[in-house]
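Troubleshooting log. The previous run stalled partway through. Resubmitting the same two chains, unchanged.
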Amino acid sequence: MIQEGQARIPSGCAISGIFSKSGERFSGADIIQSITVMHDRSNGLGGGFAAYGVYPEYKDYYAFHLFYDNQQAQKECEDFLHRHFDIANCSEIPTKRTEGVTDAPLIWRYFGAPHTTRLSASQLDEREYVAKCVFRINGSYPGAYVFSSGKNMGVFKGVGFPEDIARFYMLDTYEGHCFTAHGRYPTNTPGWWGGAHPFALLDYSVVHNGEISSYDANRRAIEMYGYKCDLLTDTEVIAYIIDYLHRKKGLTFWEIAQVIAAPFWQTIETMPEEERQTHEYLRSMFSSQLITGPFSIIAGFEGGMMALNDRLKLRSMVVGEKGDRVYISSEEAAIRVIEPDLDRIWSPKGGELVLVNLEGGTA
Amino acid sequence: MGVWGGVYPEYEIARNADRCVVCRVCERQCANEAHEYIPEINKMAADDAKCVNCHRCVALCPTRALKIVKSGNTYKENMNWTEKTINEIYKQADTGGVLLSSMGNPEPYPIYFDKLTLNASQVTNPSIDPLREPMETRIFLGAKPNAIERDENGKLKNNLPPQLKLTMPMMFAAMSYGAISYNAHESLARAAEELGVFYNTGEGGLHEDFYRYGKNTIVQVASGRFGVHKEYLNAGMAVEIKMGQGAKPGIGGHLPGAKIVADVSRTRMIPEGADAISPAPHHDIYSIEDLRQLVYSLKETTEYQKPVIVKIAAVHNVAAIASGIARSGADIIALDGFRGGTGAAPTRIRDCVGIPIELALAGVDTRLREEGIRDRVSIVASGGIRSSTDIFKAIALGADCVYLGTAALMALGCHLCRSCQAGKCNWGIATQTPELVKRLNPNIGYKRLVNLMRAWQHEIEEMMGGMGINSIEALKGNRLALRGVGLNEKELAILGVKHAGE
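Second attempt completed without errors. Output:
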């Protein structure tokens, strides 16, 4: 049978995210509860979480999470990692045997900083160096797969229902200021752990519900800029687009939203001249990064979280606020279950950016 | 090879005597003088040998008494020496001349557009109803800079080089004033204006009456440099350098003196009645570095306000050539496939030189992406675009836009008789004879062009909606929207599409 990465597999999904604007760290228990409510939106073929602020003791190191098919793959990949990074710590990621989670690969975690001499010889900036190493491993080291590579953040994912995956990784033992979650409903049975979501590169992670109709236009455009779409999933290409527009092109998240879920021309025409020019510029300059078809996404990044619906809002997504917490989810019920008494709850319009930042934070 | 001279006519004028009222319309309408009134018997007669099968008489016969049928005369059947081949030999033995033809390559090469099918949404994502939701076909053509720039307040600066803005991804292809008539040009210009797209002057300069359509005009510079001066270059919104033409790659042009009437002569800046010869190469461009010089000469002349298009014929190494052009400072590359039309070309060249636009386009788009320079240029595909689905497929293969030549002429009345080189176009298109030109009424002609383009735009919107795409940008290069049917592995690989069922 065709495996993930060999063909494009559409998925339906559930997504959820929780963010503390004050940067207060809380346990993963809340996000587990939230995504569990939406059990029926996934089919047991993929679940995962991204957690930010979970590695304060190693916050200056890139945290690499890897899947290995076997020890041979691990050995070869570790050689590569040691050649390119000073590894401050490496260990197996703690897991717990869990019913409903089977065929787990070897799952390892490395905290590393780029080798200074290698980095300067590469003439790349540090993050580009790291990204290139990730692509190298995922493209050239069969049986090894980097699924998380940011600082002070980590992705935890696998094949199974999201609540089972959470138990497997003991996510409730982690504390962070931001969590996102994903339950997957793919339309076939790939059964590969790397194919679960979130999809992450550096500190950018994306959970996504939808099936974008612009996929191949986006993929072929982004691959021109040095990205390699190995998984052939929407989430992968969306993550790369966000990374490209933010890290490489220097667009703000508001501008990114105007590119990927651009307002319609008929709306742009009614805007004041200056605003109209900005939109016309962004749509013309980055026309290949426009995403069409249904999607709701939650993207995490260093210092913040954004959420966005497609321009027609063809997927449900609601946002709730309570104190310093912001909740975003495919369903209101998945927010109410953890915070019944919200200060505010609303459904963002299609293409309307929801952006939350750490107070005094970056982004 | 016969007492009547030449070869036996391939087509025959069939007249239904019961319906014919001897109104003599056919006689008046036929510039080839195929119809003749015989007063002695008060009947019409016809000389099939003079008939070019342009259907002018058929269309204007009030009693539908006329039709053109295959004459059915056959040689002894031979799969090697076909009737066409035999006739061509007889013709050349008679005249000692090069065979001449017009319009696009009619030979039975594979038409890849017809072997590609489109996708549609089912279950996992919704189709979008274009009658209820906005459906966007607006595009911009031009180079995209590498990086954004911001002013001191962090506001984005518009650092885009000049762009062409179109309401739909279609333009009228280059057809010169001279090759086609004043009324044909007027129709194209007015249609482009009404639609918010562009027409192309071709290589014959720009008639003074048409400067007012400048906002919807692309001016062309070809090897003959006819009618090229500073005012002309600045008259349109873009300048196109014509390096080649799909119908006759490697060949120049020859507009016979008979078509160089007073107005054409003034517009082209050549003497009346003189043959207009476009050399095969540009004699100031013998290599890519020379092209770069011309591109920048034109940009200097137009003060960097107009995008420069370089039009090339789709030949074997088109991808490498396009890559060179993309690095030459050009903003837009126009690729012209071997089915593209022409007012006159040597038949052998038209039928045997060049490659299909589908393969050329896919190859160029792939190569420019591999080299990371696809954003530096827009791609316009042309040469054999026959319908909205062809346009749709071309965009999915990687084109930004298409040029329409033959289809536009057909909207104006062309019946593809492929006799433009004779200059006696009964539809008033490919002629400079005043009484023929006036048969094409620009008030009607432009409206028919608008109708055709709007109809195709609607169809494109329907197809986009069906696959859940509501903006044409999301279709560009979206090859997963296509599947091949009946194509071999190599063809699929070049086109970059999967086979149906995969």
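Takeaways: Residues 359 and 491 of chain B are 8 Å apart (CA to CA). Residues 11-97 of chain B form a domain with the Alpha-Beta Plaits fold (CATH 3.30.70.20).
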